[in-house]
Design a protein that fits this description.
The complex is a heterodimer of chains A (185) and B (172). The two termini of chain A are 24 Å apart. In chain A, strands 1, 2, 3, 4, 5, 6, 7, 8, 9, 10 and 11 form an 11-stranded antiparallel sheet that branches. Helices cover 0% and strands 60% of the residues of chain A. Chain A has one domain. By secondary structure, chain A is mainly beta. By secondary structure, chain B is mainly beta. The termini of chain B are close together. The mean pLDDT of chain B is 94. Classes of the chains: A mainly beta (185), B mainly beta (172). Chains A and B meet through strand 5, strand 6, strand 8, strand 9 and strand 10 of A and strand 1, strand 2, strand 3, strand 5 and strand 6 of B.
């Protein structure tokens, strides 16, 4: 039975909520890391991160994601990941870890002309120091074979902490990466 | 403005195992984004989802779903049903208050009385003592009727939501 508004804090119609707002776009070439350190985590509970035309200088290079906790990059084996991959030739694979040093984000790409990857991910509760920080993502690329590959999955930094920055890393990255915030109550 | 995500409603509840967000779907949008990130639960369980029509929550066997459960600690598994009374596997929530979760769900055509209501979702949660539990899946409510709201529920009061917040957006 539907419960009445009196029991819940209904905030419909409040101005300035619910916009998909661009926080920052970075277009990079030949770098090993791309940092977003002004993510406005106290404003946005959900972030949306897109990667477009992602190239690496090494063949089969991928882009991984790490979080900054109160300004300190977390690079220890504390992330947990689960990814389903599917390749155009019919090869599908599961990838999982409870001790990963990073989150998976952009599936591996070839480095020849027109071989690139694209991806998006949602990041949840980054600024909430009482919650873990979760993410879900989907990615596709042209691999070195060459052929199309897709990947989707989930990840978590299972530490109740304030995440105040995101880092995408890889080998010789060229890409356009945009960070958006989704304003909620 | 065309091409944007527009906030419709945020609703929060506590001490219940059935939580409804009413009158959130209308003729203004065809596609909706549902975001759930703030959940505390008395006992770990899946978040089950039903839809609300003119008579209230549809409790009939009108829900199909198919999802891949992705876990960081064991082999993935397929979950599916063509005769369910809810969309069962939208996300997983542990009883540890510090965990939370991230669930994003797109709902298609809920208010169109001549169309089924379709859903895609992707989620990341945590199973305390084991590890991460994710889902990616689809659902359909195979009754052509007007849907005006959405309900999240667990089986009994033993699985009460200590806190839950759901945000609804229209995709313009």
């Amino acid at each position: 039975m539907p419960l009445g508004a009196a029991r819940f804090g209904l905030l419909g119609g409040v101005a300035d909520l619910g916009k998909l707002e661009l926080i920052e776009t970075q277009t990079v070439s030949g770098v090993s890391t791309v940092d977003f350190t002004s993510i406005q985590e106290s404003t946005y509970n959900v972030h949306f991160l897109t990667a477009n035309n992602f190239h690496t200088t090494n063949d089969s290079g991928r882009g991984v994601l790490r979080f900054y906790e109160s300004g300190v990059l977390e690079s220890a084996g504390v992330y947990q990941v689960a990814e389903q991959q599917g390749r155009a030739d019919g090869v599908f694979a599961e990838v999982r870890s409870t001790t990963s040093t990073s989150l998976r984000y952009i599936i591996s790409t070839g480095n020849a002309t027109n071989e690139s990857g694209n991806a998006y991910c949602y990041i949840y509760n980054a600024g909430d120091s009482s919650k873990y920080t979760f993410m879900t993502y989907q990615s596709m690329a042209i691999q070195a074979i060459p052929q199309g590959i897709m990947a989707f999955g989930s990840g978590v930094l299972p530490q109740a902490s304030t995440v105040d920055g995101f880092q995408i890393s890889g080998t010789g990255i060229s890409a356009t990466i945009s960070l958006y915030g989704i304003a909620e109550s | 403005m065309a091409g944007s995500l527009e906030f419709i409603k945020s609703a929060s509840g506590s001490g219940i195992n059935s939580f409804s967000v009413t009158d959130c779907f209308s003729d203004k949008y065809d596609v909706y984004y549902v975001s759930v990130t703030k959940v505390d639960i008395a006992q770990a369980y899946y978040n089950r989802v039903r839809l609300i029509n003119a008579s209230g929550i549809d409790t009939g066997s009108n829900y199909d779903y198919a999802a891949l459960q992705l876990t960081s600690y064991q082999s993935f598994s397929e979950v599916r049903s063509a005769t369910a009374t809810f969309w069962l596997y939208s996300s997983w929530q542990s009883a540890n208050a510090s965990d939370g979760q991230g669930l994003g769900m797109y709902i298609f055509n809920p208010y169109d009385s001549s169309s089924y209501t379709f859903m895609t979702h992707q989620a990341s949660g945590f199973n305390a003592g084991s590890g991460m539990v994710g889902f990616k899946g689809i659902g359909v409510h195979h009754t052509a009727e007007q849907i005006t709201g959405i309900e999240f529920n667990t089986p009994t009061s033993a699985y009460n939501y200590d806190n839950i917040t759901v945000n609804i957006f229209g995709v313009k």
